[in-house]
Amino acid sequence: MYLLIILSKKIKCYFVHNFKLAANNKTMKSIWAKAKERKNGNIEGDKDIVVIGGGIAGFLTAFRLSQSGKQVTLIEANKVLGGVTSKTTAHIDCMESFIYGKMITKSFETTKDFYFFQQEAIQEYENLINEYKIECDFVKVDSYFYTQHKQQELIDEFNSLKDIGADVEFIENPNLPVGEATMAFKLKNQAIFDPIKFLNGLSVNFEIIEGVRVLDIDFKTKTLYTSKNEFRANKIIVATNFPFVNFPGWYFLRMYKSHSYAVAIDKAQDIKGSYLNADESGLTFRNHIDSVIVGGYDHRSGRPYKYQSFDRLYEKGKHLTDDGTLTHQWSANDCVTFDDLPYVGYYSKRSKDIYVITGFGKLGMAKAMASSILISDMINDIPNKYKKLCDPLRKGQCNWSFFKNLLCTLKNLVLMPLVPPFRCVKNIKAGQGKVVFYKGVKTAVYKDEDEKIHAISPYCAHLGCQLKFNPDARTWDCPCHGSRFDIHGNIITAPTTKKQERV
Fold first, then answer.
1. Count of domains observed in the chain
2. CATH assignment at residue 420
3. Domain span holding position 452
4. Which residue of 53, 289, 318, 453 is most buried, as measured by CB atoms within 10 A?
5. Of 395, 423, 441, the domain-final residue
6. 292-348: per-residue pLDDT in tens?
7. Per residue in 158-193, pLDDT tens?
8. How far apart are CA 418 and CA 230, in angstroms?
9. Do 480 and 242 contact (CB within 8 A), yes or no?
10. How far is CA 488 from CA 76, 446, 448, 473, in A?
């Protein structure tokens, strides 16, 4: 009898939870505000300065350069602010796993500069919000970093931050609202906000062109080849999340993409801060108005190691709510470098008028602001003390992480395409995607809930790596360089500039 009662309760919880998910299915998207509708610019004619990529980094760079009197054009393949920026958890935070403890063993000055590179950016957000009187739910908070199992690593991280002058405080016997912790510290003067409301509130004195994808760049003539036409520019800034020009630069070998997930649950209590768990695949927590946002369960793009990420995030956050429901869910790609520092500066040794902004890691809001300042200073010939820190041409990047990434690329570029699929379409259940034999050839096939087949080429249009299906996001992801496609083969994120061929 007791077992029957327990079983009935579990069944009830299962159906109640899935009913809530189904009831909110129409709002399964990011919680952030929508970007403004803007007048489309003129794609014809040569330009002075072109920023490619309409996310927060590109938008802020265009804003800063135009404020300094430059003629700037911002080009976005889809909708401005509709990509990774709309999929963030929007922590404006200097923390991110155990970066500082690892970095300080190599260079004290680099560690210190990296922290203040971001901390000064947080202050700049506040300055702009006050100057333009922007209502964007900006709140200064303490950021809590906590663990159950990695006590020594957390102590090292705390000591490293304290040594470089960060405003940190160790917490004895932590009793945090978000989950159990044996050890924690807090980093003061961090922030949270709505990034789209913030960017909507800035003055736009630059040209915006949407719905035009830049396909290639001639570095000698500074010619941009787009889906509509071609034209020249005096200076070009590539801010497309992952750089889409392979040579020069070789960025496809110098970083990888990480996929992460987030949910928003309404009727939430005020947790009074932002939180990062060092144990649970980087789980993060923060409030947004009357909701709590829970993020994490990140993995290398194209390599999902667990499923039902959204459901598991809901389970982690529902105790912070008063019978709250899951109102939004979303996922995003982040570019990760092998030394944890972003690439901001000249695209390559032979491109003094072509720049790059990328490699923000898991929490990129502070880095985006700091990078926009750095690129604007470089173009305006203003000294910036962080130029060397973020130099894309810096040394010391061929570490173990680099070689692991190279092996992963070789596996999915060379080995996997040679392995024949051992399944056919009959083995695919509704709502699943797999690489199978279909119409006599190897094919990436998704079967929707009505059992309709959606078939595309299994090899990424970027460089030919074999795609893998992400069951949570329902996308085809490249495990080599992080290009993502929907079930029809349409591009979701770079570096690819080509859609997948349909079969």
1. 2
2. 2.102.10.10
3. 404-493
4. 53
5. 395
6. 999 999 988 887 656 789 999 999 999 999 999 999 999 988 999 999 999 999 999
7. 999 999 999 999 998 899 999 999 999 999 999 999
8. 38
9. no
10. 21, 9, 11, 14
